[in-house]
Fold this sequence. Notes:
By secondary structure, the chain is an alpha+beta fold. 45% of the residues lie in helices and 18% in strands.
Amino acid sequence: MSNFDPKSILPTLPDQPGVYRYFDENDTIIYIGKAKNLKNRVSSYFTSIQNHNTKTRRLVQQIQKIEFTIVHSEFDALLLENTLIKQFQPKYNILLRDDKTYPFICLTNEHFPRLITMRRIDHAIGTFFGPFANPKAMNGLLEMVHQLYPIRTCTLALKPANIEQGKFKVCLEYHIGNCKGPCEGLQNESDYQIYIEQITNILKGNYQKPKSLFFERMQQASARMAFEEAQEWKEKWELLENFQAKSTVVNPAIHDVDVFTMVSDEALAYINFMKVINGTILQSQTWEVKKKLNEDESDLLTMLIWEKREQFHSEAKEILTNIPMAIEFQGAKNTIPQMGDKKKLLDMSLKNVLYFRKEKADRKAAEESGGDRKMRVMLKLKNDLRLTQLPKRIECFDNSNLQGTNPVSAMVCFIQAQAAKKEYRLFTPRTVEGPDDFATMHEVITRRYTRLLEEEAELPDLIIVDGGKGQLSAACDALKAIGLYGQIPIIGIAKRLEEIYFPEDSLPVYIDKKSESLKLIQQLRDEAHRFGITAHRNRRSKNFLVSQLEELEGIGKLTAQKLLKHFGTIRQMYDAPVEELEKVAGKAKTPMLRKQIKIWLDEKA
Length: 605
């Protein structure tokens, strides 16, 4: 039996900030936490136990010893907690450190420094920039730097004595203009150092100084009438300007901020981090954390912010969040912007984290479906079309007419990537005269979704229009008129090259011809076409038979339509009992009608 009695220990706890540690029967630390008030926080675990979740109750049952450390402030408690969690890694704590080792760019400490990439920091080697959560972005930055500055890539020990003794010879990099040949003393170290200073600014996200230098050199060369040299400086200035323009997402006046957003559910928290300098996102990462206990969102976010700022060596004076931090860090202000460019940054970060969570949920659904093909196809279509929702219900429209006669519009519906024929609909244009595909599409879309709105019926997750930009534009105008534009994704598919058009985008998207998502779109389009053509032919056949009946003496259009609706064909009409014919055509017309039908059939035989 355990001798642990929380009632005897809790009164002795101090009303001060600190860090507490829980041990199990094996004297192993199972949980470490921080507190603004140690007595209140620790006592909360042992009172109102019925309000705790299952994991917290299990933790409390295993506690056999409590230790604590008093500190000066809640911020100091956060630092100590973070250090102890990394050291002891208790099983009930969230392990904050990411398993990945992200790459850094290192500017070496040597004569004529080089740029290299490393995954472990060793300050004896050089100055480190990063880490970079996206290696592709890091490589793009390195490539641009090497285009701007002819710095060496060799590993030669370019000490002054070695260069003076003529130990080295220039390589191919010198001959193709990528290096100035410091190995043979063709470039002095002071000139080379100017490149290094400019590169350092770029790696820190400060583009203005190197841009100003390029612009100044361009003007100086132009004043000397050295136009070729001026053109070279201009190209460098444009290269850096274009790189910055692609990277800048908000006002460049936002100098140095960290952006953190978090959404969570019972088991997981999803976090996005963006490092922004001069309006440029230098770092971006989204990840998930498995909750161990019922952690408070503010506490959890604060721990994660501290961890990432430490990992990415951030000293930003402002931290933007969507949830208030539990405590503010020394020298860093926490802000939840409500408007302006900082709000745009926060919204962008939140959009990333919500998309990440959605992708995780979709992937989990696909795995739980046991590799179900329909789920796989819908997920592929969602990703190919950049949809926010899984396209479980898709409706596709097609117009059919022949030389302007008997126009009909077909709508087919696929649910869970499978034809739902009971949901198919046919539309006969009411307001359009002649073969006007655009006007017909506008009318049909209006009628279809106005009715769904009135009936409060389920709206589709995706609308497909058979046709190019014209038909798509007409459908979009209809959705705008009824207030649904932007609420339902809509695309057009052009038949010739299977081009996919998006609203307000003049350039089409081409999906891989072998892609399952394109095959699903084609299947919808072909089914709508088949359904429409079949209905169109039936309508043409019916109209032809009506016109033939009208040729018979004493038979008007109304009677002809009634006869055809009842009997289907002229032959069935003739073979029917007289009494049945009399019910539809009337006794007075029946004898003459049968006689004329007999003559007409004999002539056609």
